[in-house]
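Try it yourself: sequence plus pyridoxal-5'-phosphate, in.
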Amino acid sequence: MQEYRFEDLTVIEQVPDNNAPLPFTVSDAKKPLRFHKSLPAYTETPLFLLQSAADHYGVDSIFVKDESSRFGLKAFKGLGGSYCMFRILCEKLGIDADCADYSDFQKEAVREACKKFEFATATDGNHGKGVSWAAKLFGCKAHVYMPKGTVEARRRAIEEAGSAKAVITDLNYDATVQYAAALAKEKGWILIQDTSMEGYEKYPEWIIEGYLTLADETASQMGGRVPTHIFLQAGVGSMAGGIESYFMDFCGENKPLVSIVEPLDAACVYRSAQIGDGFLHTVTGEAETIMAGLNCGTPCGVVWPILRDCSAFYFACEDSITKRGMCSYAKPFGSDPALVSGESGAVTYGLLLSALESPDLRKLLRLDEHSVILLISTEGDTDPEGYKRITQERKN
Ligand SMILES: Cc1ncc(COP(=O)(O)O)c(C=O)c1O
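Structure, out:
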């Protein structure tokens, strides 16, 4: 393991274990995809090819999966919340999830039975919005708790998305997760959390399986191209771990080089890799970053082994990196399409551009004319005021 420091980022390089077990595979994506396709709001999100940028920097191609239009929620997260809620309700109501889909939940008797269930979760914003929306779909109630410093627009968006009541606490993200878990236990609500805890693994696994829809769509949209490099942003790492595991399976012998990308102040996966004892570690303190969705202090235990064993690089980035990504998506190269990508969505593009411009990073990442790069813009302008401020104030 080697660590390198650059102007506004640090990076750890390691040799990935190409034989590590893969808990989320291509075949695991079939069930969530079938469920998502049964939802009235389902459409595949677009995969864009930024060929002008790729030509400019001398790489083969840069693909971006754009999640800003997912279910009208401006982020990918509803994939996990909705699928997990579906699986929980199937289990509680004795419905066979292998055969059922959303149409079963439109039957009068099932809708009536769903009314008694109340869900609780903690969120930086997007997961809570997904849970609120899913609760409305299934006719349930939801209680959503948010860390201090959350902008009011994100809280309001959660309530407007569905049937949740959303509250901003005076706790940081990790403490808010504990608070929601304790309240759920006390009130008899069902905790639907996108990260695992000791003895709480099944529901986060279902959430991660829900994210596989995104991976499966992407793999088929790439039309036979196989990524050589994948950059995945991480909060607790559930999304990154699920997608990484899927693509390690999908790519077979030609494993991509996966980079896990976090904000400098909340780089818990990075920190765990840096300590290097094989265990996950928590980053404490008051993390200040505009990447709200990535502002998490503890990696998700379910995916930690994948992140630990399969990744080639870990990055910890200053906010300037994601600001650059947001602006560059908004004002693209040549004939590339313009994308609306929020603070947590654009960091991988900002990082990629920095890497392509730095001979040292380019060499480290083995980026060359054969590189087929995959990025996921995980959110649109989930904080519209912040988005406007950043994209208008900064020149590329
Ligand atoms: C837009 C966005 N991107 C990425 C992530 C990271 O996902 P995870 O917490 O599973 O690492 C989040 C988490 O909330 C998010 O909201």
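One thing you can check immediately is this: The pocket of pyridoxal-5'-phosphate is lined by residues 75, 77, 124, 126-127, 194, 233-240, 293-294, 296, 344-345, 378-379 (CB under 6 Å).
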